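Please go through this protein, sequence plus structure tokens, and consider how the sequence yields the tokens. Keep your notes short.
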Amino acid sequence: MLSTRSATALYVGAVLGPGVLLLPALAAEAAGPASVLAWAGLLALSAPLAITFAALGIRQPEAGGTAAYARAAFGSRVGAITGWWFLAGVILGAPAVALIGGFYVAELLDAGREGAVAGAAGMMATVMAANTVGLKVTARLQLGLAALLAALVLVAIVTALPESRADHWAPFASHGWAAVGTAASLLMLSFIGWEAVSHLAGELGDPRRQLPRAIGAALGVVVVLYLGLAAATIGVGSASAVPLADLMAAGLGAPGRDVTAALAVLLTMGTMNAYVAAAVKLSGALAAEGSAPRSFARPGRALALFAAVAGVLLAALAGDLVGLDGLIRACSACFVAVYVTSTAAGVRLLAGGSRRLAAVSFGAVVVVFAFFGAYVLVPAVVAALALARRPRVVAVAPAA
């Protein structure tokens, strides 16, 4: 059984990910100081989203998570589609996230592209290995990673803020107010994660008591770190490819940049660890209902398949056969599609205040989904493939 502290760590690790390595500077470049409004708006959206997933996790405390919510609300086909969207997001996102961390470390250590690819492969291998030894060890690893990465980000913020300059905040809306929406679309990757640990609700001894506490604590940590990071990035005026390293260097000098290399690894592995753990649980649930191959009921086989596909995609990224930006947007489109069906399920399944918050969340994520443009075709293709396999109940249970 997971403790509340471990569940909190898994949430922080899922939400606070590699996006902080690049996205604060990209948002500031897109909207200037007004980008802080995009951060605030997405943090405000995080509250109803987190509460909606907490309520759904309590109502449906099973490994299927978002797929189980959609199935309960709209039937087995929508549940299968939602589950495959989540799995597709993990499979597409793992190599992309690993390479982001790898490039960050390579730039700081002057290791070149080969070093970035090697670092990404090493991080992926470590996460897959951690998940093969079981959820309890994975949760302990995540607890340590989440605590350390949160502390390091906090150090970057606290040491950089005194170096901020007031003139970096003017003019406030230097690119116009409409640019705030552009910044919000860029930042969305840093806010995907509230659904991930709901897949593990069944591992909590008392989900009704523990899950709200875990989400509340994680939300508090994320609000403080994200708003602090946004303010420090604008105040210091970083415009390089390694903005978090600039923040560390502003207050701590050159050693701060070296620490950021380790931070990049922790951020990358923390996010990958939480999502791979959730994907393994979900794949077993999909196999049990016949929406995925029977072999997915065995965590080891599911992990082997995830690793093989991720390895192929990483090789394609390394050879410039696919673009990193496109892979990230395809991954994000799949996860936001999960949010659409999950929040819609919340509207149908929940009652009272939770239902109203689910309705607010649904409207917001539909708007966000529209910003993906042609990339909405990725979840559309995944849905078509999921529909090609007729769900059926089979006597296969996930291995312990």
Notes: The two ends are 13 Å apart (CA to CA). Residues 393-400 have pLDDT under 50 and may be disordered. The longest helix spans residues 254-288. DSSP finds 15 helices and no strands in the chain.
